[in-house]
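HUMAN: Would you supply a protein with fold tokens?

ASSISTANT:
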Amino acid sequence: MSVLRVLRAGWLVALLGLAGCGAAADRGASGGGGGGSAMMHNQLSPEEERVIVGRGTEAPFSGRFDGHFEAGVYTCRRCGAGLYRSEDKFRSGCGWPSFDAEIPGAVERRADPDGRRTEIVCAACGGHLGHVFTGEELTARNVRHCVNSVSMDFVPAGRVGRAIFAGGCFWGVEHLFRKEPGVLAAVSGYIGGLTERPGYREVCSGTTGHAEAVEVLFDKSRTDYRRLAMYFFEIHDPTQVGRQGPDVGEQYRSAVFHLDEDQRKAALELIGTLRGKGLRVATEVVPAGTFWPAEDYHQRHYSREGGEPYCHARVKRF
């Protein structure tokens, strides 16, 4: 990334010598790869080890999640990362849990050694999940993720919290939130604009009003909104207006998109604390509208490309 592209009010300004967080996005997706070597893994039973690590398959109609349709989030049994939302699960009659969409960036596709099928693995740890099939016309999306129950855990809806934060280039914000204890998933996307289903180039044009943001799903038994909001204010510079570091434009603005009154109050209280310490906080606190997940090649950018974000680093402020 040797050139930063800054788009604002229709102007394209090339700043040679600066490497912007979003510059590489124009190249599209590059090679993937799940798993971080420092990731903590859960202890597995022999059967879980056989399926998740040994790429085995459980017997059909035997898994605990085959006929399970409770609201919540299905997570990786090996590492705890969020994989699927319950609303994307459907009855296929195949004998294994079936989903027609994953949480963006959560599942990686690989050619199966049998040369015929497509394997799916957890993008965070590489654990075997099952296989994905298309063309069966079982749902409108025409996709079926056929997943082993033993490859998953489940967090019921009552324990799943949701938060949306914008703090500059979403690559870095997403990457850091994924590492925070209690976070099930972090998804890069767009929010706060005027158009539906915006794309990256539209947002970068500065004409849609969207901000690059990150949707965070978290386990409320392990963390809470206030703790995550504090973390948000420490991983970006909340005093900058219409930019974040070398990235300039309203799409890089600092904002908390609250989902209820409790979130709004928590954000305003934290801002008051920071202002009391002398920080001229510019972060907007506004109601959340529709969150639009970004293109697949934006998800898990630093996990795929390697390295750590240089637009974002934690600075203790509380």
Summary: Confidence is low (pLDDT under 50) at residues 1-37.
